[in-house]
Amino acid sequence: MTNPDLPLDAGTIYRMQVHQVARWVARLGGPALDLEDAVHEVFTIACRRLSSFRGESSMSTWLFGITDKVVRHRRRKERWWRWLSGSANATAGHVAGAGPDPLRVVEQNQTARDVYRILDLLPEGDRRILILFELEELAAYEVAALLGIKAANARLRRHRARARFLHVYRREFPSSEANVTRLRCENVSR
Fold first, then answer.
1. Model pTM?
2. N or C, which end of the chain is more exposed by having fewer CB within 10 Å?
């Protein structure tokens, strides 16, 4: 049974949700993921499955589920590709960022690479929670709604994921203990 109040026209859904889905893809996928291609894939799947959407969850929750699966699939594929083809630095291109202060841009890019390097070492659940809370800056009730859990559970997962992130950071960057504050999320941009 579909909810008659829901906009079940693909064009309307795209216009209403494309910016949010693009943000999710950018944050969940990191700087190496092809943003446009992944967003296109999310909406292709959503359009194909639109007739099966029953309205039991919000449109955002449904689209987040699709986005999460698309990004995880692409990240898995990318890891295999890097493993099969050699070094990621040898196979990946770098896109120069525009900005008035080149040094700040370089620092932000390095911080983003460091953060995503640590995020890539965490379990997917921790990675997803940290991205939604810290990078997307969503409230606990919003994260809970997207993941189908209670807000208290989302906050608990965030607490544990932060601890694991810090543990991995200290292991990966032992000489930069003083630079932990450098990893503030506003420095991480796509």
1. 0.55
2. N
